[in-house]
Amino acid sequence: MPEKDLTAVSGMIKENKDFANFLRNPLLKATERKAVMTEILKKMGVSNLTENTFLCLADNRRLKNTDSVLKAFAKIMAAVRGEVNCEVVTAKPLDGAAQKELKTALEGFLQKGQVLHMQIKTDPGIIGGMVVSIGDKYLDMSMKTKINAYTGLIKMPV
């Protein structure tokens, strides 16, 4: 499936509430869904493979899963391109120098040819430290987790 076709369908779902509601509507018959999807996809000019995929979803009453299909495909394509998503949560916003240093350190975990896409969020609830999720790895170095662990140890009966 051409990625641009799926990006166009994803954009249409975000922009057109009627289309998004149509995909989730359980009351329509499969034949109605298929006819409407055929018309929409023809107007969009998508490839035969993309059209067949969505018609198969319509036949099997799975158009409601379109968002999941699009997200899964985007994730697969990112992996094919060597993109690695990374989410970092800190208690306070990081300045430019700290962000650059963190990105350099995290890029050390990547294999040759991979590209890091880092997203930084703040959550004062973690008190201090950071929580890093890179690819399928998760590292919690927050003060909140450490405090909870020590509190649990203190409360354990002797």
From TrEMBL:
- Please state the protein's primary subcellular location: membrane
Q: Which UniProt keywords apply?
A: ATP synthesis, Hydrogen ion transport, Ion transport, Membrane, Transport
Which Pfam families does this chain map to? OSCP
Q: Which InterPro entries match?
A: ATP_synth_OSCP/delta_N_sf, ATPase_OSCP/dsu
Query: What domain of life does the native source organism fall in?
Result: Eukaryota
Q: Where in the cell is it found?
A: Membrane
Q: Which family does it belong to?
A: Belongs to the ATPase delta chain family.
What is the official name of this protein in its record? Answer: Oligomycin sensitivity conferral protein
- Gene symbol here is LOC106817742
